[in-house]
Amino acid sequence: MGAMFFVLSKIFWMLCAPSHWLGFLVLATLLCLLWRRNRAARIFASAAVLLLVVLAFITTPLIRALEDRYPRPPWPAHVDGILVLGAGYDTALLRARGAPQLNGGAYRLVEGFAAARHYPGARLVFTGGSGRLGGAPFSEAETARYVFTELGQDPRRLILEARSRNTYENILYSKAMVKPAPGEVWLLVTSAAHMPRAMAIARKLNWQMLPWPSDYMTVPGAGVDGSDFLEIGSHLGLADYAVHEWVGLLAYRLSGKAA
Questions:
Q1: Closest CA to 88 of 125, 146, 133, 128
Q2: What digits encode the pLDDT tens for the residues 54-86?
Q3: Chain centroid, CA 33 distance in Å
Q4: Could you please report the per-residue DSSP string of 36-56?
Q5: Measured between alpha carbons, how far is 108 from 114 in angstroms, rounded to an integer?
Q6: Which of 113, 198, 216, 237 has the most CB atoms around its CB within 10 Å?
Q7: Residue 137 CA to its chain's centroid (Å)
């Protein structure tokens, strides 16, 4: 069942990402022009422009609504463990370049390391195998080990989970590995927009955790004016992320994998 959910989620996303829809519309426009179907070309081109306009105005509110759900709390008096969720780090690139990949979730590692320094007695756990449909030759846990070691983390205090393919497996496998005792205080470190889905899964799996969000992308209370409309590349990436999180949250709840 878990394997089927993973495969279906990947196929669904390939078909439904906003940037992919824009590509489909542009391709349809070009084909219609090639076949001299001018009216159809105008329809597809208009739909592409409409999609860009809509995304320019709704993406920031969608991201902000997720990021505002779990504000960063004050440092707790005591912490027993810190769980850092993977963000799709490319370990093959690390091996080829000798330096880690930078992506939108890179600060998760920094926040995890900072928390480990703040609580020297806490266990530091990183979870992440490969989220690619066909798998990857190296787990992203290897990148985490490299970065944490470069930052100065004691490897004896680092626990790596390298089998998980998605957020549900991140938390499921990590819980089985570290066996948190009742009453233990654990920080959950992930990107702020990803936190609602991660916390819903933790509740479903009966693991009480404190949210420790990172990698914020929006400012609280900022207005929406669509002025970044022409920044198509970066804006589409943000739109994909927003839709991915909202659809993922819904899918996990409907499938019973999230509270």
A1: 128
A2: 888 888 899 999 999 999 999 999 999 999 999
A3: 38
A4: T-HHHHHHHHHHHHHHHHHHH
A5: 10
A6: 198
A7: 21
